[in-house]
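Mods, move this if it's the wrong board.
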Amino acid sequence: MRCDVRKIGWMILLLVSAPAWSNWEVAGGSVVQFISIKNNAVGELNRFESVVGTVTDEGQVDIRVALDTVETNVGIRNDRMKALLFEVGLFPEATITAQLAPSAVSATQSHRVETRLTIDLHGQVVQRAATLQVAPNEQGLSVVSVEPILLTASEFGLESGVAALQSIAGLNAISRVIPVTVNLQLVRQ
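Not the wrong board. Structure tokens:
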């Protein structure tokens, strides 16, 4: 009887612990990038340097982007974006959630995945279709957007922030349509 109790105890422990083994975590080096276009002629690549989150083996995606880690390669522009555009004191992060098919995170070869992203930014929630390339690699999985995801300033209530940036920088125009790409590296938790 004692042996059976131990076996049952171990089985319960394994069942309770198994989900922790099977989740994926966003690794360092993962980025969300966006392109800003000023005066209808100059494009600039920008990125967020802190992207964290998880993807479960069931395909539930939960990504968090720290908006105060925006990197434009110009210090004053970083500060202005944080204060005037993203208002990081009120809205410190953006979240991206999605549901993938479980097969998307368990495949052993590169494949494309179609999904709907829910993006929560600046107090507004928007959904977008996205095509992602998921590929196993030495560290775990690589998840990369196949094509840019187009977002607009107005749908996130960022129009006045873009106008403030345009005014303070003395620009004739800043595009209100922003192409966004993701490049995530996932490792087992």
